[in-house]
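--- STAGE predict ---
source: upstream dedup step, 1 unique chain passed
mode: sequence only
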Amino acid sequence: MYLAARGEWLGTDVGRGNEFCEAARSGWLKQPANSLSNLGFVLAGVLVGWHAGRPQGRLARPGLATSYAVVVVLLGPGSMAMHATQTTLGGHLDMTSMFLVASFAAAYALMRAVGRDAGFFALVFAIALVACELVERIPGELPVVMHAGNLVFGALLVLTIVIEVRLRRDPPTGDGRWIVAAVGSIAVAFVVWNLSKNDAPLCDPHSLLQGHAVWHLLCAVSAYCLYRYWNSAVVPVVRSQPSPTRSRIA
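--- STAGE serialize ---
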């Protein structure tokens, strides 16, 4: 991202993302606070990956914990692409990174709800991702969420929450504190996101403390807490120990 921003690999500045209050600087990093706050996603993804590497860090199917770590990390440079460069391509990369994590969450919840395998997860994930990319291209402005891309992103997250609530009716259920933390974090983040747009109460264009940066950090917390909730719902693998008799014989 550093090289892309310095070398203008993503195109020319068209003001993409300037509706999120922070005044654009003249250097290669157009919105410093809104850009660097995305390191929170990188940290959250690395923490997921670290936990996923432990014996108790798995999700319902092999490899999905590591895959989730990757999509969470990608939220960082994806969002940086827009806020650092304000280019059209940067904006698309920002939305795609959001679609990746939302599609993952919805596919993982649906896979568990219907009791299917990783192939089903991959199919639902791909369909959701393609659908999001197509919906994003619908022109026009919408109240509150601004455009169709944000609308479909939010719809996938709401769908995930609905399915997760229904899944709590049957064991094994995860630690409810993690799901409350995940939903609470993104709910507060959404409020801050709205209050931090241009001309909104929390908007101060020249401040290094930006509400939209807080949105990034709270979303990173939510992404990590969601993984910990999923992980807490997985039945631990009990490894059989050799009997003393067999050990002596060996």
